[in-house]
Write a structure and sequence with these properties.
Radius of gyration: 12 Å
Oligomer: single chain
Number of strands: 5
CATH class: Alpha Beta
CATH architecture: Roll
CATH superfamily: Beta-grasp domain
Number of domains: 1
Shape: globular
Number of helices: 3
CATH topology: Ubiquitin-like (UB roll)
Largest sheet: 5 strands, mixed
Helix content: 10-25%
Length: about 100
C-alpha cells in the first residue's frame, strides 16, 4: 500500500482526503503510482500529466524520502520506504511569481 499526499486543490478536485492509499500493480514507479492514482480518482486524469504526451504538467513536483523526483524517468523505481508504505509519496504544487 502506497501513501500519496495531495495538495489541497488536487484533493478537492478528486473528492479525496489529502492523503490517499493506493494499491500499485507490479513495481512501484512514478508511472505506476500515477496510473493507480488516476484510476482511483479519474478527475485527476490530465491534471498531473499531459494526456497526449504523458509528460509531467508544469508546476507539479514529485517527492519521495526528501528527494525531488520531478525530473526523473517515470520508470524510476520508488524508494523502498515509499513502496512499503513507511514513507509517503508527495505531490506538490509549485508556485511561481515574483
Amino acid at each position: 500500500m502506497i501513501h500519496v499526499r495531495l495538495p489541497d486543490h488536487l484533493s478537492a478536485m478528486a473528492g479525496a482526503d489529502r492523503e490517499v492509499e493506493l494499491d500499485v500493480e507490479g513495481k512501484a514507479t512514478l508511472k505506476s503510482v500515477l496510473d493507480a492514482l488516476e484510476k482511483s480518482f479519474p478527475a485527476l486524469k490530465g491534471a498531473l500529466r499531459d494526456p497526449v504526451t504523458a509528460q509531467k504538467r508544469p508546476f507539479i513536483r514529485f517527492f519521495a524520502c526528501g528527494e525531488d523526483l520531478s525530473h526523473h524517468s517515470f520508470e524510476l523505481p520508488l524508494p523502498i520506504a515509499v513502496a512499503s508504505g513507511d514513507e509517503p509519496f508527495l505531490i506538490i504544487a509549485a508556485i511561481a511569481g515574483g
